[in-house]
Specification:
mainly alpha; 2 domains; 62% helix; membrane; amino-acid transport; transmembrane helix; transport
Length: 295
């Protein structure tokens, strides 16, 4: 339980690193999630070391020493980068919305006076999931590859300047939470039941070779990084999120085929689906809620 909690916390505290590279935020978020996926091969490596004759004490002591060195270096580098991130957070908190005429609105206009109801950016009802204008100066994420954001698309700079409690009462948060709950639960359910599914299909007759192949397939999401990076830069969030839905449906189709030999196809699609899911979700969260709330 402690290892699982520490792994999740490590992912959460790593996400703000993306804001240190305004022009490459989406790419950095994708890399962080793919590295997190690749860590799933560690238990298999431990098992192989144990089978080779290494004791549990030696395995976990060596792992603890390795982690101490890694996190000490990470803490030092994070300490060096903290001023830059604080400047971005301060900028997000102080951001003011710009109306169509180019004039700035009052910074306090983001919330109505009656009970703190949120006044969302103009046009969110129609174009919530399109590419948002990033709260960064000249960042590539603020533009699409085929041109600048169209007129009428929401500028979420003002929304990012709202407090955390106001943000979680918005339709943006409701959508993000619902999408994440459905897909993350689906993904984790597959992770938890794939062993039983393969066993029912006869994996035991092959000395559980398919189960081990599935474990080894998860880090292969690194191969899909160029495709994921290209897709998130080429298409808006609505298209990418539908891409996640389509990959999930394709994976489910292969999983339902009652033949063991068909399951490697499900493994490959699941690896891409899981990597794309987390990369798109974290990029969407970063673009919507800003550096003041992420991580």
């Amino acid at each position: 339980v402690a290892l699982a909690a520490a792994g999740t916390l490590t992912l959460m505290v790593a996400l703000p690193v993306g804001f240190l590279f305004p022009g490459r935020t989406k790419s950095v978020m994708a890399i962080i999630n793919i590295l997190f996926d690749a860590s799933s091969v560690i238990p298999l490596l431990f098992y192989r070391l144990f089978v080779a004759g290494m004791s549990r004490r030696a395995i976990f002591t060596g792992y603890a020493v390795f982690l101490f060195a890694v996190f000490a270096a990470d803490a030092f580098l994070w300490w060096r980068s903290t001023p830059a991130l604080e400047r971005l957070q301060e900028k997000a908190k102080k951001g003011a919305a710009v109306d169509e005429s180019g004039g700035e609105k009052d910074e306090g206009a983001g919330a109505a006076g009656d009970g703190g109801d949120i006044e969302l950016p103009r046009g969110w009802q129609q174009r919530l999931l399109v590419t948002t204008v990033e709260a960064s100066e000249g960042g590539e994420d603020g533009e699409r590859e085929n041109g600048k954001a169209e007129k009428g698309e929401p500028d979420l700079t003002r929304f990012q300047s709202l407090g955390f409690l106001q943000q979680i009462r918005s339709v943006h948060f409701a959508f993000a939470a619902t999408f994440a709950v459905v897909h993350v639960f689906r993904s984790n359910t597959y992770l938890g039941t794939i062993g039983l599914h393969l066993d029912r299909l006869g994996d035991a007759d092959y000395d559980y070779a398919y189960t081990q192949a599935f474990q080894l397939s998860l880090p292969l999401s690194c191969v899909a990084l160029p495709f994921i990076d290209w897709a998130m830069r080429r298409y808006d969030y609505l298209t990418c999120l539908h891409g996640v839905n389509m990959l999930g449906m394709l994976h489910g189709t292969f999983t339902l085929v009652p033949y063991l030999a068909a399951q490697p196809l499900a493994f490959c699609v699941y690896t891409l689906y899981r990597a794309f899911l987390y990369a798109v979700l974290t990029a969407f969260h970063a673009s919507t809620f800003g550096p003041g709330s992420i991580g």
